[in-house]
Amino acid sequence: MQPGSTGAHQDPEQGAPDPSPENKVEVATPDLDAVAALEDRLRRALADLDNLRKRHARELDRERAAAANRVAASWLPVLDNLDLALSHADADPSAIVDGVRAVRDQALAVLASLGFSRYDEVGVPFDPTRHEVVNVVDDSEAEPGTVVRVLRPGYGTAERQLRPGAVTVVGRQG
Questions:
Q1: Which one of 143, 145, 156, 159 is most buried, by most CB atoms within 10 A?
Q2: For the chain, what is the HEC assignment?
Q3: CA distance 158 to 116
Q4: In degrees rounded to 5, what are phi and psi of residue 10?
Q5: How would you classify the pairing of strands 161-163 and 118-119?
Q6: Edge to edge, what strands does the sheet with 165-170 contain?
Q7: With a threshold of 0.70, does the pTM exceed it?
Q8: What are the structural domains, with CATH classification, of the chain?
């Protein structure tokens, strides 16, 4: 092909492009009805998607509110028992301590029912998915990496944790 040539065969006598069928480019005229139908389908699909997003957002808000209501309702008996314990503040101090322990146990049961059981074991191996080391000590009686003190209990499981346990572990023994 020569510079400036369009690639079409030219008749050498006339200098015009060869009108042979293989050189003709047919321009399809758009079917306006088909284009309009596709545009309408696109608009409807976009509207359906927007409606789906809005409905999903409403349902998500409704489910969050229902979950918050269930959790709050689980804690109401705990509050009722705290109020009852406070109303007996003038009673025997040991009875109040027993009542507070019972309320604590009830609160732990509520957390466990929500999937956040308490863990505060001593003597177990350190687990970075469940524990947070806040102190390291030397202890010749325990294996390195063993939890020897729980400063703050953890709640939940390694997969679904509310809070890791803050622990003291045994360091390497030299």
A1: 156
A2: CCCCCCCCCECCCCCCECCCHHHCCCCCCCCHHHHHHHHHHHHHHHHHHHHHHHHHHHHHHHHHHHHHHHHHHHHHHHHHHHHHHHHCCCCCHHHHHHHHHHHHHHHHHHHHHCCCCEECCCCCECCCCCEEEEEEECCCCCCCCEEEEEEECEEECCCCEEECEEEEEECCCC
A3: 10
A4: -115, 140
A5: unpaired
A6: 131-137, 165-170, 147-152
A7: no
A8: 32-114 (3.90.20.20), 116-174 (2.30.22.10)
Q: What is the distance between the alpha carbons of residues 127 and 116, in angstroms, rounded to a whole number?
A: 17
List 137's β-bridge partners, or say none: 170
